[in-house]
Amino acid sequence: MAVIFNESSVDAEHIAEGVSVQRLITPERVQSDNVSTEIVELEPGAEIGIDVDAGDVAWAHILDGNAELVGSADVPRLTTDHFLFFPPSFSARLRSDRGARLFRATVPDAGRFDTAWMPAALAFRCVDWTEEPVLDSLHDARKRIYLVTPKLSGTQVVKGEMILYPAGTEAANHHHEGADHFQYVLRGTATFFLSGEPHRVSAGDTVYIYENEPHYFVNDGGEEMAFIEYFVPGKFKTIWAENAPVCTWSPTGRNIMGGKPSREIGVHTSMDKRSDV
Length: 277
Hints:
Layout: E1 3-6, E2 13-16, E3 19-23, H1 27-30, E4 36-42, E5 47-51, E6 57-65, E7 68-69, E8 82-86, E9 91-95, E10 100-107, E11 125-128, E12 135-137, E13 143-148, H2 150-153, E14 159-165, E15 174-177, E16 180-187, E17 189-194, E18 197-202, E19 205-209, E20 215-218, E21 225-232, E22 237-240, E23 248-251, E24 268-269
Antiparallel strand pairs: 1-19, 2-3, 3-4, 4-10, 5-9, 6-8, 6-10, 7-9, 8-11, 12-13, 12-23, 13-14, 14-21, 15-22, 16-19, 16-21, 17-18, 17-20, 23-24
């Protein structure tokens, strides 16, 4: 059964001067080693190493504050607008002058999820998600922004996106075959239905869903709900409940700020056949 918990229930560990970590998804908590996640907090002036093992992939979001990769002149100052993808054997130092909170995820032994695993071909990516193309749901006002896909990352290990649910919107009941996945709620509140049973979720919640578990969100709150969502592995199948509308996402030709996006993508449908995004 899906695991739902809030970060406030997880103790922070002091791991270095000015650095603490809350370990969210762990093998012990979800009974799976597909992925681990954590919140890293840097006090003003603190610094931490970003070191990815040779067989792993990892990624991160800045949740609050700002930071910089030490010695990386071609990487902009990192803010809440940025998503970072770390390939195997990546190593760098992350420093924050004014303090920051970082969401970080790691897939250990990533090659088990990609039959064409070529770690040497993978590269570091720093993406300003506010410049990425927005897709609109054809059924309501929800929006989707892709963060990592096989096309963007060069691997089928993970697929993920940011999804925005304005008040009054909801998904149709569905489940997935071939992958576990999780959501981390950035803001807002909603009702999460798992096998027909309602659960209240809010900012700071992690929802870890196993394959074949029917689920959907309903934003019955008064404000927009936003979450990041990741599937491991990134290749899977979505099955919709009988008579449920298939979720189809149409490109808007805009980024979230209303300007021209950094790239163009095609329509996406959560059927067996989908566009390469």
